[in-house]
Design goal:
This protein has 6 helices and 33 strands. It has 350 residues and is α/β, with parallel strands linked by helices. It folds into 2 domains: 103 residues, no CATH class; 241 residues, 3 Solenoid (UDP N-Acetylglucosamine Acyltransferase, domain 1). Strand 8 and strand 9 form a beta hairpin. The longest helix has 20 residues. The N and C termini lie far apart (43 Å).
C-alpha cells in the first residue's frame, strides 16, 4: 500500500485561493478526479511512501525514484520528508520523466480539460470496466439511460446520473455520480462533478461537486466550487469585447494579474450564491460565501469573500446557518473541522 504525502511549496495555497480556504490544493477537482484522487488511482497496487506536489496532474506514475514533468521534479519516493524536500528544492534528479502538467494557478484548470479528461476516462474505465457500456467513444454506466440524448466524442457518465431528453454532450466530458443534466442542455469539454444539477450551455467548465446551475444561461472556461448556486438567466462572459487577454484577481498578488489567456470565465468560491439574471464579467473571481444579485451586474473583477449584495458583508452566524441548510438538502452535515475552517476564513478576510 502507498502512503501519499503532499509537499507544499511557498505560495501554493495563496495561488489557489479562494478554493483553498476550506480544502487543500490536492482536493481540487482537475478533471474526473481531484489532484489527490488521481495520484491514488495511479498508485494502486504499489508499495512505499510518495512525496508529491499537490498541484500536479500525472498521466503515469513510476514505482520508484524521482518523478519529473518537463524537467521539473514533482515527486519523490523516499522514506523521509527531508530527503524528498532536498531533491525537490535542488531540482537535480536521477529519475523518470513522465507526461503531466504542473498547474500553477487556479485559472489554468479549465484550459487543461481537453488534455486531461480523455486520460482520466481511460484510467477510470480500466478500473471499473464491467460497470459501463460503450456508446461509440463514450462510456456510460449501466444504471444510466441515454434515451433522446446526443453524445459526441469521448466521455464518461457515472453511476446514478440522470440525463434529460434532448441534451447534447460533446467530449471530452465527465458527468459524475448522482448528477442531473436537465433537458435541452448543451455541455462540451466540461466536468460535472458528483451530486450536481446543471442546465443551459456549459463549455470548458468544472463543477466540482454539490453545485447547481439548473436554468438556461451560458457559462464557459470557468470553475464552480462546492455548494454554489447559479440563478436562472445568469450569463458568464468568457471573452472580452476587445478579444484581448484576460486579467484575473490573484489573492497571492493582492491584485489583478495577467493570465495570457483569451478565454476565461468566472471562478466561484465554495458556497457562493448568484441571483437570477446576473451578468458575470470576463475573468471574475467570486469569493467564498459571496452573495450577489442582478443589482451587482456587471460584476467587478473581484467579489470579496462573504460579500453581501449591495456592498455589505455577511455575518458569520448567517453564513454558517445557510451552509447547514444548503448541505442538509443533500444529506450532508458539516463537521466541526469544516465549521472551524469557515470561522478561520471569516477572520482572515475581515
Amino acid at each position: 500500500m502507498v502512503e501519499i504525502r503532499f509537499l507544499y511549496e511557498d505560495g501554493t495555497v495563496e495561488r489557489f485561493l479562494p478554493f483553498t480556504f476550506l480544502k487543500g490544493v490536492e482536493d481540487l477537482r482537475s478533471g474526473i478526479y481531484t489532484f489527490a484522487e488521481r495520484i491514488e488511482r495511479l498508485s494502486e497496487g504499489m508499495e512505499g511512501r510518495l512525496y508529491i506536489l499537490p498541484n500536479v496532474v500525472l498521466h503515469r506514475l513510476p514505482e520508484r525514484g524521482v518523478v519529473a514533468v518537463n524537467g521539473r521534479v514533482v515527486g519523490v519516493w523516499a522514506d523521509r520528508e527531508e530527503v524528498a524536500r532536498d531533491v525537490l528544492e535542488r531540482g537535480a534528479y536521477d529519475g523518470q520523466e513522465v507526461a503531466g502538467i504542473v498547474v500553477s494557478d487556479f485559472w489554468q484548470i479549465p484550459h487543461i480539460l481537453e488534455e486531461v479528461l480523455p486520460r482520466d476516462v481511460e484510467l477510470e474505465v480500466s478500473r471499473r470496466r464491467e460497470e459501463f457500456f460503450r456508446h461509440e467513444e463514450a462510456h456510460i454506466h449501466r444504471s444510466v439511460s441515454t434515451r433522446f440524448v446526443e453524445i459526441e466524442g469521448p466521455g464518461l457518465i457515472d453511476e446514478g446520473a440522470s440525463l434529460g431528453p434532448f441534451s447534447y454532450l460533446k467530449g471530452p466530458f465527465y458527468v459524475g455520480k448522482r448528477s442531473l443534466i436537465k433537458p435541452f442542455s448543451s455541455i462540451s469539454v466540461s466536468v460535472v462533478g458528483p451530486v450536481c444539477k446543471v442546465a443551459g450551455e456549459i463549455s470548458y467548465t468544472v463543477f466540482s461537486a454539490y453545485a447547481n446551475k439548473q436554468h438556461a444561461g451560458f457559462i464557459g472556461h470557468s470553475y464552480v466550487g462546492e455548494w454554489v448556486n447559479v440563478g436562472a438567466g445568469t450569463e458568464v462572459s468568457n471573452l472580452k469585447n476587445t478579444y484581448g487577454k484576460v486579467k484575473v484577481y490573484s489573492y497571492a498578488a493582492k491584485g489583478t494579474v495577467e493570465t495570457g489567456m483569451q478565454f476565461l470565465g468566472a471562478f466561484f468560491g465554495d458556497h457562493a450564491k448568484v441571483g437570477i439574471n446576473t451578468t458575470v464579467s470576463t475573468g471574475t473571481v467570486i469569493g467564498i460565501f459571496a452573495n450577489i444579485t442582478a443589482a451587482d451586474s456587471p460584476t467587478p473583477k473581484f467579489v470579496p469573500d462573504f460579500y453581501w449584495t449591495g456592498g455589505g458583508r455577511m455575518r458569520l452566524d448567517k453564513a454558517i446557518e445557510v451552509a447547514r441548510r444548503v448541505m442538509a438538502r443533500r444529506g450532508v452535515e458539516p463537521s466541526e473541522e469544516y465549521l472551524r475552517l469557515i470561522r478561520e476564513a471569516y477572520a482572515k478576510t475581515a
